[in-house]
Description:
Number of strands: 8
Oligomer: single chain
Shape: globular
Helix content: 10-25%
Largest sheet: 6 strands, parallel
Amino acid sequence: MPHPPESALLVIDLQRDFCPGGALAVPEGDVIVAPVNALMAEFCAVILTQDWHPADHSSFASQHAGRAPLEVVEMPYGPQVLWPDHCVQGSPGADFHQDLDTDRADMIIRKGFRRAIDSYSAFFENDRETSTGLEGYLRTRGIEALVMVGLATDFCVQYSALDARRLGFGVTLRTDLCRAIDLDGSLAAALTAMREAGVVLEG
């Protein structure tokens, strides 16, 4: 059933490095691609986000001597999980999954391109202040509600959903069209936080 024109589909980080075989693979990350493509037909507006890191990004464990991936360090903006090098600008891993229908995208938001700060959310970098510009785009198009899908539920999807609620957008999360990293219980915590923020969980 078509969604109203004031509703948009936000597809988060369906990139090769987050799918099986990638540098930061989310289990079953690729199985959601086909149903996400099908869902696009129900929306007037489709927006994709794309992790887009410089090769020396500060969130990479390789940039911190003696540190390993998934360790947590303190950054000026707060705690930061250190990741394997992933979604490096211009690399094959940063590409969208080859089966994703990128032709349907009205807009692609690239995030995490500033070396000194990571960016999980589609709306703000991890200082929660530096805007990606997505909010302004949605407001000028008259979009008031978002349906979110993508990777990973407990990181970029969660941060995007919480920020969207904080900005006053209606948010529905299709849990069947997301997959999680689930680091030390992070999936359960993310679902609780989103539910408490007023995110509608479906699927």
